[in-house]
């Protein structure tokens, strides 16, 4: 089954796309995706392959996650998402634990963004009532990790909470990551804050204004967070005159 999956991926691969994807996901020397290898398969095609092999056993998923090929890791994560969303309580727990164990294999922003909220976020949301301490502990561990992708996963995972009207985890992790040095974290935090603002503008503005966070947070983070603000108000935030 695994060999068939790999063949199916290669059937829809395009060499010219591989070069473009390598540049887009910063796979060059010294860049955050250094060493990543691309076949040249776009996400819609990867989803089709993942759907076809959604019952792939963990032992084969593990081999895909350990692959140096980006699209093979992506398909592995998309399969885990399928299994989690269609599984019962027992399977969801197994998928979640397997995902956490292999989270460092989601080592580019698309791999995180296409899986973190749907597995990590969804499971921690379920734990919010039954095991709140366990939820907070894992969020704290990931958001303080030295691994860039674990930190990004911690904030992106809160998207699931936001969609269900719960903003506290997002704001807590945003506070933790506000001094982070990496641009990919700035973008992710700003993105999640913007999502909070879409649902509750007052909550977003309270967060920005409290302790004058809007003056001290990275500019990219702020720009993402206030992207949908009316232009006059947006300028006030950017120029620090709120």
TrEMBL record:
InterPro entries per record: ARM-type_fold, DNA_alkylation
Return any one Pfam family short name.
DNA_alkylation
Which Gene3D superfamilies does UniProt cross-reference here? Answer: 1.25.10.90
From what superkingdom does this record's organism come? Answer: Bacteria
Against CDD domains, the record matches this protein to: AlkD_like
Q: What is this protein called?
A: DNA alkylation repair protein
What is the organism lineage in this UniProt record? Bacteria, Candidatus Yonathiibacteriota
